[in-house]
Design brief:
199 residues, mainly beta, four-stranded antiparallel beta sheet, globular
């Protein structure tokens, strides 16, 4: 499920690869878009609310207008399920990740900015950008949280503080800290960005 930041639209995806878009007053805005071959694994609205990006079990990443028009589609963006999508706060770029352990960066028009940032050794479950868009954080089933630049460079060494999957990650408002959540250990950890050990 994804909610547009302007509060006008809610999008949902099904195991059959269908996405539906509602107005937040409960009326249906767009009905039954056959988006993916298999489960819709992730979706996110651009900050403007005018674009919706979806990813599925087919490994495809698709960019939609809010009226349900397909603007861009990439059939083999990932191998396996796409599990996480995140936009920069200005909407100029978004990131995707999933079962192949790769993190990919895209322009808001759907152009690929990086063929894939490798670093995780298992599924990537969560992505988030710092408020200024310069740093991207990814969290995965290998228990690692990794930081990346928009140029695709790893920042420091992986942060490891969870027993099992790291399944959630968020930046503080000023970007100086990140908070991570573990699936199996039910722990929440806080990290200072300027204290991340370097390679």
């Amino acid at each position: 499920v994804a909610l547009s930041q302007d509060g006008l639209f809610v999008a949902g995806g099904t195991e059959r690869g269908v996405i539906e878009i509602w107005n937040t007053d409960g009326s249906r805005a767009v009905d039954h878009i056959a988006a993916h071959a298999g489960t819709v694994g992730a979706m996110a609205y651009a900050p403007s609310g005018r674009l919706l990006v979806t990813g599925g079990a087919d490994g495809a990443v698709k960019v939609w207008s809010t009226d349900g028009t397909l603007r861009q589609g990439f059939a083999s963006a990932h191998q396996g399920m796409v599990r996480a999508i995140a936009f920069t706060s200005d909407g100029s770029a978004f990131a995707t990740a999933g079962d192949d352990g790769l993190v990919r960066l895209w322009g808001s028009d759907g152009t690929s900015r990086h063929s894939g940032m490798a670093g995780h050794e298992a599924w990537v479950r969560a992505l988030t950008f710092a408020a200024d868009g310069t740093v991207l954080a990814s969290a995965g089933d290998d228990g690692a949280v990794r930081l990346w630049t928009q140029a695709g460079q790893a920042i420091g060494i992986p942060l490891r503080g969870h027993d099992g999957s790291a399944s959630a990650v968020a930046f503080s408002t000023d970007g100086s800290q990140i908070v991570t959540g573990g699936y199996f250990d039910s722990r929440v950890r806080r990290w200072k960005i300027d204290a991340v050990p370097q390679e």
